[in-house]
Amino acid sequence: MRTKAVAAATLLALALTGCGAEIAPRGDAATASAHYPVTVENCGAPVTFREKPARAVTNDVGITELMFALGLEDRMAGYVMPDDKGQVDKVPWKDAYQRTPWLSKRQITKEIALEARADLVFAGWHYGFDESSGFTPQTLSGLGIASYVLTESCHSGKGPERGVMSPLNALYTDLANLGEIFDVRDRADRLIADFKAKIAAVPEPAYRPGVFLYDSGEDKPFTSGRFAAPEEIITKAGGRNIMGDIADSWTTVGWESVVERDPEVIVINNYGTPDAEAKRKFLLSFPPLAGVSAVRNNRIFVLDYVDLVESPRNPAAVTALAEYLRTVPAR
Q1: d(CA 281, CA 32)
Q2: Cα distance between residue 44 and residue 9, in whole Å
Q3: Which residues span the domain enclosing 277?
Q4: Where is the signal peptide (predicted)?
Q5: What is the pLDDT of residues 210-241, one digit of tens each?
Q6: Residues 223 and 313 in one domain
Q7: Which of 136, 168, 198 is the C-terminal boundary of a domain?
Q8: Which end is more exposed in the chain, N or C (fewer Cβ atoms within 10 Å of the end residue's Cβ)?
Q9: In this structure, what are the phi and psi dihedrals at residue 36, rounded to the nearest 5 degrees?
Q10: Is residue 330 part of a domain?
Q11: What are residue 16's DSSP bridge partners?
Q12: What is the C-alpha separation between 137 and 139, in angstroms, rounded?
């Protein structure tokens, strides 16, 4: 059977060194250079590559666009992405989307990685990697496939909490690491400098309104703590994330805490055109929120999902939200 044969062959490429994994991607001899081997730290562990990956597979839109932003579509075997993550025909990387195989609109699996002959899977905890499904870096390592974990999603302890650094530092860390892994550090450094300059150009606000990020949920809302991208998108835009004291990335809270903290603006995480309008109607008609400032004044701003997860769209999201927040009067 083909899957078993591929799995057996890939085991020959795996060697463990110290506390990190040393992976030899299944590229051709042309991928070797004086740059390799190269070691990066990912979620607190060293990972060593002896060659440039040639058949990377990515999971989800933000992760895929990190690769595209670095011009690495030629090193990709494809991407896995649901079709509800917004329009991609007008983004700067639309040509990369057209040139790169869309492997699945469902959950990424080891079978997809094997069928694609992947030598690297770039995903994140709850952005593809999940202990309950059995799709983990450890599983892939047993098949001879390297992994890179999205830094925004790193486990921060033994529990389910995620996040080990500020969200924009996570973005810059991943770009720098990908630059090393694929030997395009100059591109990565230019992109990081460009992102930092765009964010630095946003004026310091005279007043910082409280902002609540609403992802989903009616019984209890799913929102962003201080380690998910909205924390710094809101902060750099001139707002104050009312859930910024929570030491987690994406998490569930109670409506009573939202009411108590009385946000002046609600940012909706939009998963698609009908999604945002349905969420707006719910928020404006939900009785417990009737007295909340954002609802009373109909101050609801919409950003797309890919704007609000770690991605190269984060700087533009900061700029767009900053323009809106400047219209909010001081209390």
Answers
A1: 55
A2: 29
A3: 205-325
A4: 1-20
A5: 999 999 999 999 999 999 999 999 999 999 99
A6: yes
A7: 198
A8: N
A9: -105, 150
A10: no
A11: 21
A12: 5
The SS3 call for residue 279 is helix
The token pair that represents 270 in the structure block = 């939009």
Pick 13 or 80 by higher pLDDT. Answer: 80
Residue 120 has pLDDT above 60, yes or no: yes
Structure tokens at 178: 């990908």
Say how many domains are in the chain: 2
- Lowest-pLDDT range, 2-16, 41-55, 64-78, 210-224? 2-16
Same domain membership, residue 255 and residue 132: no
With 70 as the cut, is the pLDDT of residue 103 above it? yes
Task: Look up residue 186 and give its two tokens.
Answer: 């100059």
> Do both 125 and 258 map to the same domain?
no
Q: Are residues 188 and 212 in the same domain?
A: no
Residue type, 237: A
Distance CA 56, CA 305 (A): 23
Q: State pLDDT tens for residues 67-87.
A: 999 999 999 999 999 876 667
β-bridge partners, 265: 211
- From first CA to last CA, the distance across the chain in angstroms is 68
